[in-house]
Amino acid sequence: MHKPYPTLATQALATAFIQPTDLQLPPGGCLGLHGHSGSGKTLLLRAIADLDVNTGEVLLENIPRSRFRGPQWRRKVGLLPAESHWWGERVGEHAPQWSLALLSTLGFPEDVLHWQTGRLSSGEKQRLALARMLANQPRVLLLDEPTANLDDGNTMIVEHVIHEYLQQNQAAAIWVSHDPAQLGRVAGKRAVMDQGRFTMEGGETWS
User: Fold this and answer.
1) pTM of the full predicted structure?
2) How much is the pLDDT for 161?
């Protein structure tokens, strides 16, 4: 039987700061990424999302990134930044369609799409940004501290939502966190960034 292609793979992906990086994420896999502030975690996610100048190759289910238009790539490889951006006056303006069931799971009432973005707390923005990204049905989630502004209860809800999404869709994720306990809960493997160098912990690779 043919072994499935990795959902995401990078080949010598590099920027002015990130050293050439090779990694693979299997279907349903979540890689936990940690490292000191300034080590390059966010820059690696931005390079994968093709938001910063980079060299090397990134493949989505064995299809090179060069075959995709930029907006198409970033719908399929979704970046959830630590600080989300809201450009419209109302929440609903920020995605063509939203899952009302998901919004309810994340703790929002039915009228949340009519809320003014200026009234949102940092925690509300973080949860709504997750729902906005998942509305695009991405194949890869690039998660930059996705629960940093959340209390314990909402953190557990978000962890569950992401886990269920990965399993149900056989998508993959890189989850950046400074919390070792969280990475122990959400990640199948871990890696560390140090001065732009990516290293799988313990020399592990995905089987």
Assistant:
1) 0.95
2) 98
